[in-house]
Design a protein that fits this description.
CATH topology: MetI-like fold
Strand content: under 5%
Largest sheet: none
Shape: elongated
Radius of gyration: 23 Å
Distance between the termini: 26 Å
Number of domains: 1
Structural class: mainly alpha
Length: 289
């Protein structure tokens, strides 16, 4: 065995470098995930030009029409085109999930930086408050928010975003505690840099990888959470083509007209899987670096 081969074998055994097959799989997974996510983003942006029918137009004589050349994915209980409604349902999800992820990321990053940098009683106070928030069931909090504020995109963004703040905060805090021990932080403290400068100028750039991974991971969770809230009736208004609402409205007809449920369900699954593939590939690349 040559010296180069020996170094490669040691790197693989210690986890420093992934085997060639794993390295080949990562670009494939990233490409598949990017295609799925990018495709749904384009559909959400241009669905009015892609949908063959008005997703809200009813045709009582075409109730539960099976998939055909005229209606590729059949029709629902009101004779509405399932394919058109599936395309239109991409926009509500992709309006809510990124905004909720951004809210969770900004708030969680700032709180995590504060907890990890200050330490002592500030860290303890923040973590105990987050523990209390995590104990309270998210679904009950969602019901209370919607009952008090009503159904709207803003309320859904707040509900989903605030639910993920403790998760992001914990990850950012853990990364901040590691960086807090580095010499450059000690040097910044000796220079007398203010707290905000220490967090934003010194520590934040060095934990950007953690923040980036959290962004992709939480985006997939936010997509699923938005669909779940719509499914239980806390999302969009009744009759909306939102995927979660479509699954809920048609689940009673699963045996007679399975296409009415499978179409939005597979749309949710494909988007969540696409985001997960991108997140896992990104995490693997950053860990390798």
């Amino acid at each position: 065995m040559t010296a180069v081969q020996e170094r490669r074998a040691v790197a693989v055994a210690t986890g420093v470098a992934a085997p060639p097959t794993a390295r080949r799989r990562r670009p494939i997974a990233l490409s598949v995930g990017a295609v799925l996510v990018g495709g749904w983003v384009l559909i959400a942006a241009f669905w009015p030009y892609l949908a063959p029918y008005d997703p809200q137009r009813q045709h009582p004589t075409l109730r539960f029409a099976a998939p055909s050349g005229a209606h590729w994915l059949g029709t629902d209980q009101f004779g509405r085109d399932t394919f058109s409604r599936m395309l239109a349902g991409a926009r509500p999800v992709l309006e809510i999930a990124p905004l909720a992820t951004g809210l969770a990321l900004i708030a969680g990053t700032l709180i995590g930086l504060l907890a990890g940098t200050c330490g002592r009683w500030v860290d303890e106070l923040i973590m105990r408050v987050l523990d209390a928030v995590l104990v309270f069931p998210a679904i009950i909090a969602s019901i209370l928010f919607v009952a008090m504020l009503g159904r709207s995109v803003t309320v859904l963004v707040l509900v989903i975003g605030l639910a993920f703040v403790p998760i992001v905060t914990r990850s950012v805090r853990a990364a901040t505690l590691v960086e807090r021990q580095q010499p450059y932080v000690e040097a910044a403290l000796l220079r007398g840099e203010p707290l905000w400068s220490l967090m934003l100028r010194e520590i934040l750039p060095n934990i950007s990888r953690t923040v980036l991974v959290e962004a992709t991971s939480r985006l997939g969770d936010a997509i699923f959470a938005a669909a779940t809230l719509s499914f239980i009736g806390l999302g969009q208004q009744p009759g909306s083509p939102d995927w979660g609402a479509s699954v809920s409205d048609n689940r009673a007809y699963l045996q007679n007209a399975p296409w009415t449920v499978l179409s939005p369900a597979l749309a949710i699954a494909s988007l969540v899987i696409g985001v997960a593939l991108v997140a896992d590939s990104l995490r693997a690349r950053l860990d390798a670096r």
